[in-house]
Design brief:
183 residues; alpha+beta; 7 strands; 27% strand
Length: 183
């Protein structure tokens, strides 16, 4: 079985046109980029009404296996339509009512999976989530800011100390050099 070689790039457009190289594993991608990388899948390019039209437009890109055509909900004026919740009917052996037509309009877009080069400046201005939720600044965050806060890598509060005493052991108060079992 051969591994799929995914592009190494800073964004989805660069993954399609100007990738730094291709790698199957994170360590190979990190060596190519010279920095940390993260694996991500993003939609890129125009939307098509049918899968056949999208596959015909992106035939060259689909050959490598790192990209595929995916059906997504169409955005209307930059927003994804919100579907109203449906109440269960519990009638005629059915739990949910029959849908008369499509709930939302769907389109076909190219989705590419690639190793995105992590930009350390992306995390520089964000504070840790544990600090933000304890302050008043965490209350007025936008959805984009919350997503960015959730995606940032965790940073330790202080370096982890080695565990020298077990769970059921304790040190003698009169001689801290002796560890005895807790009964």
């Amino acid at each position: 079985m051969t591994a799929i070689l995914y592009p190494v790039a800073a964004n989805a457009e660069a993954a399609l046109s100007a990738a730094k190289g291709k790698a199957a594993r994170e360590s190979d991608a990190r060596n190519l980029a010279g920095r940390d990388v993260e694996f991500i899948s993003e939609e890129v390019g125009p939307a098509f009404e049918s899968a056949e039209a999208a596959e015909a437009a992106f035939a060259a890109v689909l050959e490598g296996g790192a990209a595929r055509v995916r059906e997504v909900v169409a955005k209307v004026k930059g927003r994804t339509p919100v579907v109203a919740p449906v109440r269960p009917v519990y009638a005629g052996g059915r739990r949910w009512p029959k849908v008369d037509g499509p709930i939302a309009k769907t389109v076909w877009r190219l989705s590419i999976s690639y190793w995105r080069i992590v930009d350390p400046a992306r995390f520089a201005e964000l504070e840790q989530a544990r600090r933000a939720r304890k302050t008043n600044t965490g209350e007025g965050l936008t959805a984009e800011a919350l997503r960015a806060l959730a995606r940032q890598p965790l940073q330790p509060v202080k370096p982890q100390q080695p565990l020298d005493v077990g769970l059921f052991e304790y040190r003698l108060p009169e001689n801290p050099g002796i560890v005895i079992p807790d009964e």
